[in-house]
Write a structure and sequence with these properties.
Layout lengths: L1 E5 L7 H10 L4 E5 H5 L5 H10 L3 E8 L9 H19 L3 E5 L10 H17 L3 E5 L10 H11 L4 E6 H6 L15 E6 L9 H8 L10 H10 L5 E4 L4 H4 L3 H22 L16 E10 L2 H13 L3 E6 L4 E6 L2 E6 L4 H10 L2 E9 L2 H10 L18 E3 L5 E5 L8 H5 E3 L11 E12 L3 H11 L2 E3 L3 E5 L2 E10 L5 E7 L5 H9 L3 E9 L2 H10 L9 H11 L3 H10 L2 E5 L2 E7 L8 E9 L9 H10 L10
Parallel strand pairs: 1-2, 1-8, 2-3, 3-4, 4-5, 5-6, 6-7, 7-8, 9-12, 13-15, 17-21, 22-25
Antiparallel strand pairs: 9-13, 10-11, 10-16, 11-12, 14-15, 17-22, 18-20, 19-20, 20-21, 23-24, 24-25
Helix pairs in contact: 1-11, 3-4, 5-6, 9-11, 11-16, 19-20
C-alpha cells in the first residue's frame, strides 16, 4: 500500500509539512499549487526538500478550467499547461491533476473534451509526463466520475488517465458499481476524504468540512472496495480541506491521516479477502468488555480527600499495592485506584495536571493483540519499569497523554488485583450504596481534537459512534459524541470544548490539558442508592426546583414520582425505549464529575436534555474567576 497526502491537508510551510508527512510514515505528497506559489524558492528546491525527507511527489494540482474552451481561451489554456509542465519537470513529478471545468465560457461536449485531452496527452508525452482528469462534484458540464471516465476512454491516450476522488463521487451519491469496470491502468491516482453528512452547497461543503476516512459519515469503505476490485495498486492520497486541520498540529493530523488509510484498507481487506492488497498485517478490531479500573494520580493530601469521598460513596479500601504507594477502592465491579508514588509516570502526570484520572484499564479479548493493532495504527506504546511484585500490563498513550491499560482473561492479567495488591482486612465492611459497574467514562478535550480521538478509538476497538450532540453550557456549546462497544458494556463520551468559559473548557484550562473528567457509575435502584448516600452524609448537587416542575409537565409524571425526584435531586429523561435517572455529586477538584445513573428498559442515551441544568448547578459551585486555589 502506497500512501500520500496533499499539502493542503495540514498546516505549516512546505518544510514543516514535509517533515510531518514523512514522520507519519507516508510515502508521497501531493503539491497543492497555492502552497508552491507561497514558497520562496524554486521548484527544484521543493523537489529536493521532498526527496530529503524520503517523499515522492505524487501529483501537482490543480490545473483548472482546461477542457471545452472556445478560442482564444483554448490556446491560452494549452500555454498555461506548458508552463505547469515546466514546473513539474523541475519538481520531479510526472502527474498533473486537471479538474473538470467550471468556466462560464466552457462549451461542454464529451467528444470536444476528449479531443482537447488527446492533444494535451501528446504534449505531456513529449516530456515524459501524465495527465489525470477528475470530475468535480460542482463541475459545469462534468460532475460525475462516469462522464470523466468516458472522456478519458474516448481520449484513448496512454498519458491521460482518471483521478478518482471519494468525496466528489460520494457527495453526489453516485452508484459505486460503475468504478469496478474501469481498467486499473487508467486510474492514475485515488484521492480519499470523508465528511459529515450536511445538507449544503457542494463546493462549500468540500472546501471546509472534509475529514479523514472514518471520521465522517460517507461510505468511503464501499468506495474503496470498488476501487480495489479493479486491481488498482497505486497511491492512496488524502486530500482534506478542513478549517480546523489548517490551524492544527501538522504532526498530529499527519499521524491521523496515515492511521485513517491503514484502517480503511484493513476494512477493505476483511470485506474483500480475495483481493490481493499489500497492507500491514494486524489483528482485527478488539472487543472491549468494559472499564476494569480508573486510576488517579494524586499527592497524599488530595489522596486523603479523594479517599474520604469514595468511602462516603460506599467504596471500601480493598487492597494496597505490594511495593508502591497505591491504594485500591472497590464497590461492586468498580475498581478505583489512587496512586501517590513520588516517581514514575503517575507522579509526572500529577506534577503537570494535578490530581487527575490519568489512566484507565480496559477489559479486552486479547491484550497483546490490542497493543499490536494499536501500534500498527500509529498509537504510542507505553513502557515503564516493572517493579517487584508487578505484572507487565500492556498499555498505550491516550487522550491528553494519559494511559490506557489492557487486561484479558488469557493471561495472569486478570489476576492483577490478587497478584499486585495485599487485601485489606476491613474490605468486606463499609456502607455500600448499591453501585454495580462503570456505566460510562467521559473524556474532555478541545473541540478540534475530537475527530482525532474518535478515529483513534473506532479504528482500534470494535465500537460504533453515535451522532454528535450539542450540549448547551450557559457559557457556550460543548460538542459531545459517544463511542460504544457493540454490546454496550463499554461506553465512552468525548466532549469537545470550544470556549474556556464552559465547564469543560475550565477543566482543560485548570488541569493543563485534555483528560478524563466524568465518571458515571451504575446502580439498579437510583432511589435506594440516593437514600444510602444520604445516610453516609452525602450531599448531592442541588438542582433548580424549576427543573422539576417542567419535568413533571413535560413527561406527564405522577406528582409523587416528581416529588421523589425533587427531594433527592435526581434528574430524569425518557425515550421510546426506556427511562434514565441521574444523580450528581458536587464537582471534585477543578471540575471532576461523579454521576450515578440508572437505566430502565432499553434507554440508550446519556441524559443530554438534562445537561444545561446540571451544568448550571455545577458552575454555581465553581471557584470564582480570579480567586486563587486554596
Amino acid at each position: 500500500m502506497k500512501t500520500s497526502i496533499a499539502t493542503v491537508s495540514i498546516a505549516g510551510d512546505l518544510a514543516e509539512k514535509f517533515a510531518a508527512i514523512s514522520a507519519a510514515g507516508f510515502d508521497g505528497v501531493e503539491i497543492f499549487e497555492n502552497d508552491f506559489l507561497a514558497f520562496d524558492g524554486s521548484p527544484r528546491d521543493v523537489g529536493r526538500m521532498a526527496g530529503d525527507t524520503g517523499l515522492t511527489i505524487t501529483l501537482f494540482q490543480p490545473f483548472r478550467d482546461f477542457e471545452g474552451l472556445p478560442e482564444p481561451q483554448r490556446n491560452r489554456a494549452f500555454d498555461r499547461a506548458e508552463r505547469k509542465f515546466d514546473v513539474m519537470q523541475e519538481l520531479g513529478t510526472d502527474l498533473m491533476l486537471v479538474c473538470s471545468s467550471v468556466s462560464p465560457v466552457s462549451l461542454g461536449g464529451i467528444d470536444r473534451a476528449a479531443m482537447d485531452f488527446h492533444e494535451l496527452g501528446d504534449r505531456a508525452a513529449k516530456r515524459g509526463l501524465r495527465v489525470g482528469y477528475e470530475a468535480l462534484a460542482w463541475g459545469r458540464h462534468v460532475n460525475d466520475h462516469r462522464d470523466a471516465w468516458e472522456i478519458v476512454r474516448r481520449t484513448d491516450h496512454p498519458n491521460v488517465g482518471l483521478v478518482l476522488d471519494s468525496f466528489q463521487t460520494l457527495a453526489r451519491r453516485i452508484e459505486l458499481g460503475s468504478i469496478r469496470s474501469i481498467p486499473a491502468d487508467k486510474i492514475f491516482i485515488v484521492q480519499l476524504a470523508d465528511a459529515p453528512l450536511i445538507e449544503m452547497d457542494l463546493l462549500y461543503w468540500s472546501r471546509h468540512f472534509r475529514n479523514m476516512p472514518g471520521e465522517g459519515d460517507l461510505p468511503v469503505r464501499q468506495f474503496m472496495q470498488a476501487v480495489a476490485a479493479t486491481g488498482y495498486d497505486g497511491y492512496l492520497s488524502l486530500e482534506i480541506f478542513n478549517d480546523q486541520f489548517r490551524g492544527g498540529s501538522a504532526k498530529a493530523i499527519s499521524v491521523d491521516g496515515r492511521r485513517s488509510l491503514v484502517w480503511l484498507m484493513d476494512q477493505v481487506r476483511r470485506e474483500e479477502p480475495a483481493l490481493d492488497m499489500a497492507i500491514p498485517p494486524m489483528p482485527d478490531r478488539i472487543g472491549v468488555g468494559g472499564v476494569e479500573f480508573i486510576e488517579f494520580a494524586a499527592d497524599r493530601q488530595d489522596a486523603g480527600q479523594l479517599g474520604s469521598l469514595l468511602r462516603m460513596l460506599g467504596f471500601v479500601e480493598a487492597g494496597r499495592h505490594v511495593s508502591k504507594e497505591v491504594t485500591l477502592y472497590r464497590q461492586g465491579e468498580i475498581n478505583i485506584v489512587i496512586n501517590t508514588e513520588r516517581q514514575g509516570f503517575a507522579h509526572s502526570s500529577f506534577v503537570v495536571h494535578g490530581t487527575s484520572a490519568y489512566a484507565m484499564g480496559l477489559k479486552v479479548e486479547d491484550a497483546a493483540a490490542t497493543v499490536a493493532r494499536a501500534e500498527a495504527l500509529g498509537a504510542e506504546i507505553f513502557h515503564q519499569r516493572v517493579g517487584p511484585g508487578e505484572l507487565s500490563i500492556p498499555a498505550i498513550r491516550g487522550v491528553g497523554g494519559g494511559l490506557i491499560y489492557f487486561l484479558d482473561a488469557k493471561t495472569d492479567l486478570e489476576k492483577v488485583w490478587d497478584i499486585e495488591f495485599t487485601p485489606v482486612t476491613s474490605a468486606s465492611s463499609g456502607n455500600g450504596v448499591g453501585l454495580t459497574r462503570i456505566d460510562h467514562v467521559g473524556q474532555t478535550m478541545a473541540q478540534e481534537e475530537m475527530s482525532s480521538w474518535l478515529l483513534f478509538y473506532v479504528s482500534i476497538f470494535r465500537t460504533t459512534k453515535t451522532p454528535m450532540v450539542d450540549i448547551v453550557d450557559p457559557a457556550g456549546l460543548v460538542r459531545s459524541q459517544v463511542i460504544e462497544g457493540l454490546d454496550k458494556r463499554f461506553r465512552l463520551t468525548l466532549n469537545g470544548a470550544e470556549s474556556h468559559r464552559t465547564l469543560a473548557g475550565h477543566f482543560i484550562a485548570e488541569t493543563f490539558g485534555s483528560g478524563v473528567q466524568h465518571l458515571a457509575l451504575a446502580t439498579d435502584d437510583i432511589f435506594a442508592t440516593a437514600a444510602k448516600l444520604q445516610a453516609n452524609g452525602f450531599e448531592p448537587l442541588q438542582i433548580s426546583m424549576n427543573y422539576y416542575d417542567d419535568v413533571e409537565a413535560r413527561f406527564g409524571l405522577d406528582p409523587e414520582v416528581a416529588d421523589r425526584l425533587r427531594s433527592a435531586n435526581i434528574l430524569y429523561d425518557r425515550d421510546d425505549n426506556g427511562e434514565f435517572f441521574q444523580l450528581y455529586a458536587p464537582t471534585f477538584g477543578e471540575g471532576f464529575i461523579i454521576e450515578f445513573v440508572e437505566r430502565r428498559g432499553a434507554y440508550a442515551g446519556y441524559g443530554a436534555p438534562n445537561a444545561p441544568f446540571r451544568i448550571a448547578a455545577q458552575k454555581r459551585l465553581m471557584r470564582p474567576k480570579g480567586m486563587p486555589k486554596v
